[in-house]
TrEMBL record:
Residue span(s) of domain SRP54-type proteins GTP-binding: 267-280
Protein name from the UniProt record: Signal recognition particle protein
Recorded name of the encoding gene: ffh
Any one annotated GO CC term: signal recognition particle
Subcellular location field: Cytoplasm
C-alpha cells in the first residue's frame, strides 16, 4: 500500500538526515520533493499544494533543536500533516440511542459494497451486536445471492423480498429487525457503473424511508481521483456520514485516501484490505500516516526529546564538551535527562530498526542506577576533578554507593574514554569546518 509514496518521502528525509541543520535551502528542496511525491501518488492538486505549504511554514517556524536532526524533525512535521489530511482523529460510526440502528451502504457497482456489508456485520458481531442485513440491491439477482452466501459464512440473517423494490425491502427489513430484536440493520443498496440520477433518487428514497443513523459511502481506492469525484457527487445528493476505502491491499497509490477528507469534508471510517470477511479495519489516521512514513515510533521519540530537552542547557553542555570541560557532574545530569525520558527499553524500541533486535536483548531499566549511585557518592570536588580519587576515596565511594572499588574504577575508565572520544570528535569537527572555509 502506497509503496511508491512511502519510498519517495523516506528518501527525502534520508537526504536531509546527512545535514546538520534546517536551512531555507534544504526546506525548499525537501518541500519540492514532497509535493512531487504527492502529485505522483495522484493526490488532488489543491490538497497537495495546501499540504506542502503547511509543511514549509512549520519547518520555517522551528527553532534549531540540537537534540533532533533535520531529517527527524521533517519526519515529525510531515507525519503531523499526513495525520491531519487523513482526518486527524479516528471517527466512529453512530448508533441509535434506541435500537435498531440503521446503517445504509452506498457506492458504485464493483466498489466493494456487498463485501463491506458482510465485513461490517462480522465486525459488529464481534463487538457483541446482533446485526441483520437487507438485500436492497434488487436489480442484480447475483447481488442478493452474493450477500446471502457471505451472510451464511458469518452466520448473520439476510432480509430480502421477491419484488424488485429497494425501498420496500429496506422498510420491511427495518420492521423485521425490530420484531426480531436485531440491534443493527445494514442495508446493501444497488450501484451503477457511473453516477446516474435514477440510482441517486433510489438511495435518497431509501434514506427518507428508513432514516439511517449512519450512511457509509464505499469507494474503490484504486480509482484515485475518480473516487474523490464520485464521493463528491454522492455527498451532494445523500449527504453521507463516512467513507469506506476498499482495495487498499492492492497496488493503490494513495491519492484517494489523502484527498477525500479535504475535498469532501467527510471522514474515512473504515478501510478494507482484502476479499475475505476478516480484513476490515477501523481507520486510524495516525497509524496510516506512520505506515506511509515507514516509521518505528520516531514521532514519540521526537516528542519526548522536545518535551524533556532544555535548549539552553543543551547549548551549555555542548560548550563544555567543545572546551574539554565535561566532567562527572555533567555526566550525572545527562543520566538524569535520559532517565526522565522514560524506560530505557521503550526509548531504544522507538528507534526504527532497533525494536526488532531488542527483543533478544534485555535492557534493565535500572541499568544506569549503579553509575548514578557512584557519582552521587562523590564530593562535588571529586566530580569536577576525578584525579583526586585515590584508593581510600574509591573505597569510601564504593561503600557509599553499595558497589565495589572495581565498579568505581570501571566507571572512571569509561568516563576517561568518553572524554577522549569527545575531544577527538570536537577536533575533527573543528578541522572539518576549517577545511570548508566556514571558520
Ligand atoms: P459491489 O458491487 O459494490 O457490491 O462490490 P462487491 O462487494 O461485489 O466487490 C467487487 C469485487 O471487489 C469483488 O470481486 C470483491 O471480492 C472485490 N473486493 C471487495 N473489497 C475488496 C478489498 O478490500 N480488496 C480486494 N482485493 N478486493 C475486494
Amino acid at each position: 500500500m502506497f509503496d511508491d509514496l512511502s519510498s519517495k518521502l523516506q528518501s527525502t528525509f534520508k537526504s536531509l538526515s546527512g545535514q546538520s541543520k534546517i536551512t531555507d535551502l534544504n526546506i525548499a528542496e525537501a518541500v519540492r520533493e514532497i509535493r512531487r511525491a504527492l502529485l505522483d501518488a495522484d493526490v488532488n492538486y489543491e490538497v497537495a499544494r495546501e499540504f506542502t505549504k503547511k509543511v514549509k511554514d512549520q519547518a520555517l517556524e522551528q527553532d534549531v533543536l540540537t537534540s533532533v536532526s533535520p531529517g527527524q524533525l521533517f519526519t515529525k512535521i510531515v507525519y503531523d500533516e499526513l495525520t491531519q489530511v487523513l482526518g486527524g482523529q479516528k471517527e466512529e460510526i453512530r448508533f441509535a440511542s434506541t435500537p435498531p440502528s440503521v446503517i445504509l451502504i452506498a457506492g458504485l457497482q464493483g466498489s466493494g459494497k456487498t463485501t463491506f456489508t458482510g465485513k461490517l456485520a462480522k465486525y459488529l458481531k464481534s463487538k457483541g451486536r446482533n446485526p441483520v442485513l437487507a438485500a436492497a440491491d434488487v436489480y442484480r439477482p447475483a447481488a442478493i445471492e452474493q450477500l446471502k452466501t457471505l451472510a451464511e459464512q458469518i452466520k448473520v440473517p439476510v432480509y430480502s423480498i421477491e419484488e424488485k423494490n429497494a425501498v420496500r425491502t429496506a422498510k420491511e427489513a427495518l420492521q423485521f429487525a425490530r420484531s426480531n430484536a436485531h440491534d443493527v440493520l445494514i442495508i446493501d443498496t444497488a450501484g451503477r457503473l457511473h453516477v446516474d440520477e435514477k440510482m441517486m433518487a433510489e438511495v435518497s428514497e431509501i434514506k427518507k424511508a428508513v432514516q439511517p443513523n449512519e450512511i457509509l459511502f464505499v469507494v474503490d481506492s484504486m480509482t484515485g481521483q475518480d473516487a474523490v469525484n464520485t464521493a463528491r457527487e454522492f455527498d451532494k445528493t445523500i449527504d453521507f456520514d463516512g467513507v469506506v476505502l476498499t482495495k487498499l491491499d492492492g497496488d493503490t497509490r494513495g491519492g484517494a485516501a489523502l484527498s477525500i477528507r479535504n475535498v469532501v469534508e467527510k471522514p474515512i471510517k473504515f478501510i478494507s484490505m482484502g476479499e475475505k470477511m476478516d480484513s476490515l479495519t477501523p481507520f486510524y489516521p495516525d497509524r496510516m500516516a506512520q505506515r506511509i512514513l515507514g516509521m518505528g515510533d520516531v514521532i514519540s521519540l521526537v516528542e519526548k526529546a522536545q518535551q524533556e530537552y532544555d535548549e539552553k542547557e543543551a547549548k551549555q553542555l555542548q560548550q563544555r564538551i567543545t572546551s574539554d570541560k565535561f566532567d562527572l557532574e555533567d555526566f550525572q545530569k545527562q543520566i538524569h535527562q535520559i532517565k526522565k525520558m522514560g524506560s530505557l527499553k521503550d526509548l531504544a524500541g522507538m528507534i526504527p530498526g532497533v525494536s526488532q533486535k531488542l527483543k533478544d536483548t534485555e535492557i534493565e531499566d535500572n541499568a544506569l542506577d549503579p553509575i548514578e549511585a557512584i557519582i552521587s557518592s562523590m564530593t562535588p570536588d571529586e566530580r569536577r576533578n576525578p584525579q583526586l580519587l585515590n584508593a581510600s576515596r574509591k573505597r569510601r565511594i564504593a561503600a557509599g554507593s553499595g558497589t565495589s572499588v572495581r565498579a568505581v574504577n570501571d566507571l572512571l575508565k569509561q568516563f576517561a574514554q568518553m572524554k577522549k572520544m569527545m575531544k577527538t570528535m570536537t577536533k575533527m569537527s573543528k578541522m572539518g569546518r576549517a577545511m570548508q572555509g566556514l571558520k
